[in-house]
């Protein structure tokens, strides 16, 4: 089954909240213990009809420039990204009082990043990437399960299917929200300017 984590990573010191590189902080917030399932991230794209579309995907990883997710190249989201390569995402940790939202530009991830992400996925998700197609979707439930079990039994080590594709969301704006049970919440917006530097603005919580 598809699993994700609600575990929060770590935060910076309060005095560094406005000056830290926001992508460093994104990595800190989303990085959890080894072998922990990846965080669940809401992802919004622009539909082919111009209306927004939103769904949840697993956050594969992040680095100094982007956050990454993976999908099937035949999916609706892939077609939407090809037409309008812009998106937004959000992650929330209610128990920790943290929320992260960002929007920016989307591009196809490098093949080696996509391969690494596939190999880090659970066995279930690796099989799903191969068997999640229209043909299987239209079969009766029992037949779908038999086909799944047969594929699992016949394949030991799996490489990603040709339809496996990764995307990088390169943020233009990142907003970090921190709750406070003893006082007002706080939001800090980081906006990337034309030179690639981050401008910081403290917003009402």
Account of the protein in words:
There is one protein chain. Strands 1, 2, 3, 4, 5, 6, 7, 8 and 9 form a nine-stranded antiparallel sheet that branches. The mean pLDDT is 93. The chain is built from six helices and nine strands, in the order αββββαββααααβββ. By secondary structure, the protein is α+β, with helices and mostly antiparallel strands. The protein has a single domain (14-122, 162-204), classed as Roll (Pnp Oxidase, Chain A). The protein has helices spanning 22-30, 76-83, 111-120, 123-131, 134-137, 141-154; strands spanning 40-46, 52-58, 61-62, 67-72, 86-93, 98-108, 164-178, 186-192, 198-204.
**What's the CATH C level?**
Mainly Beta
Shape: globular
**CATH superfamily grouping:** Electron Transport, Fmn-binding Protein, Chain A
Sequence stretches where pLDDT stays below 50 over 5 or more residues: none
Number of domains: 1
SSE string? HEEEEHEEHHHHEEE
What is the level-2 CATH architecture name? Roll
Q: Tell me the major beta sheet.
A: 9 strands, antiparallel
Number of strands: 9
How many helix segments?
6
Mean pLDDT: 93
Proportion of beta-strand residues: 25-35%
How much is the radius of gyration in Å? 19 Å
User: Which structural class matches the secondary elements?
Assistant: alpha+beta
Oligomer: single chain
Distance between the termini: 36 Å
CATH topology description? Pnp Oxidase, Chain A
Relative helix content: 25-40%
